[in-house]
Amino acid sequence: MRNNEDIPALVRELRQRLDLTQEQFAQKVGVTYSTVNHWENGKRVPLPFLIKRLWEMKHELEENQSKRQRRKTAR
Q: What is the C-alpha to C-alpha distance for residues 38 and 21, in angstroms, rounded to an integer?
């Protein structure tokens, strides 16, 4: 999942997993609400450094989830 067609799904997934509105997600990433809206609707593509940040955020979420799972199974 590393091409521009996946960006809307990536943005939506991150935003929903973080339980954030488009406006809140925009603040977290450092862009405007309309930018996030355009990303989710496939009207625009983030700049390369922002795409990298989105993938990093996804990786961090997955790592945190994995750590929580390991802690649960260790009990």
A: 14
pLDDT tens-digit map of 12-39 = 999 999 999 999 999 999 999 999 999 9
- For the chain, domain boundaries: 4-74
Domain 4-74, architecture per CATH: Orthogonal Bundle (1.10)
In one-letter notation, the amino acid at residue 42 is G
- Please report which helix (H) or strand (E) contains residue 70, including its range: helix 48-74
Q: Is the pLDDT of residue 4 over 50?
A: yes
Distance CA 11, CA 32 (A): 14
Q: What is the pTM of this model?
A: 0.82
